[in-house]
Amino acid sequence: MIEKRALQAVILIACLLPLVVGGQGIVHGPAPFGHLTDVPRDLDSHFRYISGIFFATGLGFLSCVPAVEAKGARFRLLGGLIVVGGLARGVSLIAVGVPSTGHILGLGMETIVVPLLMLWQAGFARRYLAGVTAPSSPAPTSALGR
User: Which UniProt keywords apply (predicted)?
Assistant: First the structure.
């Protein structure tokens, strides 16, 4: 049970990033992220759309917390979306150059932390379900019970 609580706590903490940053992007657009005040409407629209998706992944991960051992498929789907986004961020790093520190930290979350969380969740679920479904051993008999 300790491992389950630890995994749940780490997921809750990790959910803060997409919820806070995605929420900021929805409400404020790209301005707070690059000190941009006059961006094209299409760029603003796209940025807010992507921020909404990011926010929604945070909600999705949050929905995995209560029964994390049973939410493997959802966890892998959400994690896969984040990893692909991180790989796209890596393409930008190669094509355009090194972004700000916040984006580098995001890249680390997306390509290192999330895959590690996916592995942890899968391993925990496997161990948890094996323990739940393992046949119970017969109760020990004592000499008096014979």
Answer: Membrane, Transmembrane, Transmembrane helix
Domain boundaries, position 111: 2-129
Helix/strand/coil for 35: coil
Q: How many domains does the chain have?
A: 1
140 within some domain: no
Domain-embedded: residue 135: no
**What residues contact 15, with CB distance under 8 A and at least 6 apart?**
58, 61, 62, 65
pLDDT by residue (tens digit) across 111-132? 999 999 999 999 999 999 998 7
Cα–Cα distance list, 122 to 14, 79, 115, 132 (Å): 17, 12, 11, 15
Residue 142 lies in a domain: no
> Quick check: is 84 in a domain?
yes
Q: Name the band, by pLDDT with cuts 50, 70 and 90, for residue 109.
A: very high
Tens digit of pLDDT for each residue in 36-76? 778 889 999 999 999 999 999 999 999 999 999 999 999 99
Following DSSP, what letter does each residue of 62-98 receive, concatenated? HHHSTTGGG-HHHHHHHHHHHHHHHHHHHHHHHHH--
Q: Indicate the SS3 state at residue 19.
A: helix
